[in-house]
Amino acid sequence: MTFREYLCAIKDKRVAVVGAGISNTPLIESLLEAGVDTTVCDKRSREDISESAAYFESHGARLRLGEDYLYKLDADIIFRTPGIMPTNPALIKAIDKGAVLTSEMEVFLSVCPCKIIAVTGSDGKTTTTSIIAKLLKNEGWTVHVGGNIGTPLLTKSDSMHPDDIAVLELSSFQLITMRQSPDIAVVTNLAPNHLDIHRDMKEYIEAKRNILAHQDSSGRVVLNFDNVTTRAYADSSKGETLFFSRREKVRDGVYLDGSTIFDAIDGKSLEIIKSNDIYLPGVHNIENFMAAFAAVRGLVSYSSMLETARAFRGVPHRIELVRELRGIRFYNDSIASSPTRTIAGLRAFDQKVILIAGGKDKGIAFDELGAEIISRVKTLILTGLTAEKIRSAVVNAPGHSGNLKIIMCEDFADAIQAAAVTAQEGDIVLLSPACTSFDRFRNFEERGDTFRMIVQGLE
């Protein structure tokens, strides 16, 4: 079924689209153009989305805006934005009355005419997705990138060719209701994350499992062998299972042995590249490349893998070198919204760093991060709602001697200024918050952009 055929099939249905953000706006436009009875529901006020509201209404949509946007939700089909969990009481009531709950991404998986590679995990999703897309493009494939990154793909699906490849980054919020899996599924790792939204870790793990749960024998899953939780996903695999590992020699997949990355096919190992061919710093980026290499096996040559590893400069907000000033290097790792992500950032450097951390709590303990900070940070600068919680984890961690300098700053700009004043030639200043940005910023991108702007203005 094509997207056009899907729209024809639901033309007599009442459709509610929950969330009028970037991902759903093209969908809403397509529904209205096809003459589908459409209600747009959004928590924001008319003033907040005035231009979009006027457009939607002028094309026949009904609007449900403000705090009561889900009150007495009544529709045959409900498109859920990833920010609204399926456990929302209003959604549950609607489903009990017969509504079908879906999403822009779920429909895309059902109508996409080409092969789909999708990536999920707690850390490394965006970088791994971007590497896969770059590998394929360097090999000559026509690639469409979407999901959490790129542009919404559903409304573009009818113009895709069967020989193209779609590469998606998928979050647990997108996957939790997914009833279809991609052709190639990649799980980078799993660690406690988003526990302020998911009911518990079990729900989070099961949501991620959906990326492979609906594959058949023709599917491929790429799993992190070094992560106990992701390795256990192999039990759910119905098709080809490939592992990647930087600690073990795997029989089928990609592994690191010394300084060489190998591709193992039924126990036979072939050299792909040397680890120092990878431009991006950090062992976590070695893992990201290994996951990507396994995903594109048979689609990309080893020569393209080498070329991409040497040329790929990374993704903004992910250990992004912003500036070198007076011999001090400033790195933006604003994507690090969990302790495990910040730990990976700290381990990317072979020296102690000046760390700026803190933000909004996600319900994750900072104990492990506290111990890592003691061994890898020379000065800790804390700001945001979790500043005191992180400080407590550090001072109570084994090995804390009181020698680590900790600076508490109310203002984000003051934290950056304090880092610049404290740093000396040869130092590294790393913004890696270990928390979400929502105490001060709309998202991690805005936080990273603010960091970049302030750093560029330092004299």
Walk me through what this model shows.
The chain is α/β, with parallel strands linked by helices. The chain folds into three domains: 3-102, NAD(P)-binding Rossmann-like Domain (Rossmann fold, 3-Layer(aba) Sandwich), CATH 3.40.50; 106-311, UDP-N-acetylmuramoyl-L-alanine:D-glutamate ligase; 320-456, Alpha-Beta Complex (Protein-Tyrosine Phosphatase, Chain A). It is built from 16 helices and 20 strands. It has helices at 3-9, 25-33, 50-58, 89-96, 104-111, 125-139, 172-175, 201-213, 228-232, 283-295, 302-311, 339-347, 367-376, 387-395, 412-422, 444-456, and strands spanning 14-18, 37-42, 62-65, 77-80, 100-102, 115-120, 143-147, 165-169, 184-187, 220-224, 240-245, 253-257, 260-265, 268-274, 320-325, 328-332, 353-357, 377-382, 405-408, 428-431. The strands form three sheets. Strands 7-8-6-9-10-11-12-13-14 form a nine-stranded mixed sheet, with helices on both faces. The longest helix has 15 residues, at 125-139. The chain is globular, with a radius of gyration of 23 Å. It starts with a helix and ends with a helix. The model has no long low-confidence stretch (mean pLDDT 95).
